[in-house]
Amino acid sequence: MRISELSTQTEVPVATIKYYLREGLLPEGERTSPTQATYGSEHEQRLRVIRALIGAGVTVAETRKVLDALDDPPASPHDLLGAAHAAVMPPADGQIDTVDAERLARDLGWQPGLCDEQVLAGVARALQGVERAGFRIPDAVMAAYLESVRTLAQAEIANVPTESPEAAVRYVVLGSVLIEPLLLALRRVAEQVASAERFGGTVVEPESAP
Amino acid sequence: MRISELSTQTEVPVATIKYYLREGLLPEGERTSPTQATYGSEHEQRLRVIRALIGAGVTVAETRKVLDALDDPPASPHDLLGAAHAAVMPPADGQIDTVDAERLARDLGWQPGLCDEQVLAGVARALQGVERAGFRIPDAVMAAYLESVRTLAQAEIANVPTESPEAAVRYVVLGSVLIEPLLLALRRVAEQVASAERFGGTVVEPESAP
Predict the structure, then answer these.
(1) Which residues of B touch A123 (CB under 8 A)?
(2) What backbone torsions phi and psi does residue B85 show, to the nearest 5 degrees?
(3) Which of A160, A165, A186 has its CB closest to that of B206?
(4) pLDDT class for B202, splitting at 50, 70, 90?
(5) Which residues in chain B have their CB less than 8 angstroms from residue A100's CB?
(6) Interior/surface letters B177-186, b for 16+ CB within 10 angstroms, e for the rest
(7) Least CB-CB distance to A195: which of B78, B162, B201?
(8) I need a labelling partner for A39 at 20 to 30 A (CA). Which of A62, A205, B17, B48 fits?
(9) What is the phi/psi pair of residue A161, to 5°?
(10) What pLDDT digit, counting tens, does each position of B130-168 carry?
(11) B20: nearest Cα among B47, B58, B52, B2
């Protein structure tokens, strides 16, 4: 198909497709003339993946790394997962204190050597962001966070398809990244439901008259 | 304190502080001369909040809305939560089909009227992103997502402090936004742990010899 039809099929503007071509995210089509090329279903599928990743908040540079992991995956699904995570996280610079992050990770079943340093550094940075705002997470809430991510991660990993490397690769790489906006969106719904059940229509009484 | 000390205390560069002042995120200090101002602890605290929000991926425009909700909060913690969510989500344009999102929301205890349209639209957009990549979430995994967000949201809302409106405001507004990077980071650790337990060192066998 020509680039105009590729654009129609994927709902990605032609100018954006050309940008992805220039950035090397999308491979060149087959040249039919000096100014035209044709594209096949593999381009369409790749373009859908690119659009989904970028729509999920992944940068162009990170998207390139995710695509690299899809194109040339490590043999083990475990290393695949590491590659997918690495693609969307800044590199660990060894500067951040991961003591608190390791404590939480142990509650998730972590032991030294089981996770990339980068992933622990990511937890440490996130904790730092919370603390710097002067926000304290109640112990009961942190316990709920740990229980929840353990539940969902076990289900995710249990369902990695193993009938083919390609299926495992797509599932692991896309699943870890694309699901992030969905989880956050579902959490907002659940928060509003719980809040309506607890507070709907009631007002927090100030301690003294205004 | 002068702007240089504010910078030292908060580890925010002076140029960045001046940017926040120009953008109106940070209120002006008290002028002590035509070219100098002094800043107090309320500036320091606000700056920490700004930095934490922006570090959590919130844009300047969204940060402004979060700060507005902190400065002039609705009376009800439920409306507060809606304001915090609204600050970090694009406005609903009524164009997206929310049928699938509503089905998932019902599994989270939603009933019509219990949530902002915007939050449901957010779920719909996230689902759309996943589907457009050709990624299918196994039923067991979706069930785990729903169970997990329900668990964590109930703990979050149960722990909203009610002894003062200010405490409730900070908790709700900051908690819903600042926690997002932490949840995603904890999920990555949990995924790597579960993956190491399932796959560590093993290779997905291709169906035919390479």
Answers:
(1) 182, 185-186, 189
(2) -65, -45
(3) A165
(4) very low
(5) none
(6) bbbbbbbbbb
(7) B78
(8) A62
(9) -70, 140
(10) 888 888 999 999 999 999 999 999 999 999 888 777 787
(11) B47
Q: Is A32 helix (H, G, I), strand (E, B) or coil?
A: strand
**pLDDT tens digits along A128-155:** 888 888 889 999 999 999 999 999 999 9
Three-state secondary structure readout of A61-119:
HHHHHHHHHHHCCCCCHHHHHHHHHHHCCCCCCCCCCCHHHHHHHHHCCCCCCCCCHHH
Mean pLDDT of A51-77: 83
CB B177 within 8 A of CB B64: no
CB atoms inside a 10 Å sphere around CB A72: 9
Which of A106, A175, A125 shows the shortest CA–CA distance to B178?
A: A125
Amino acid at the residue B135: F
| pTM of the predicted model as reported, rounded to 2 decimal places | 0.84
DSSP B138: -
| CB within 8 Å of A54: residues ≥ 6 apart | A60, A63
Cβ neighbours of B32 (radius 10 Å): 10
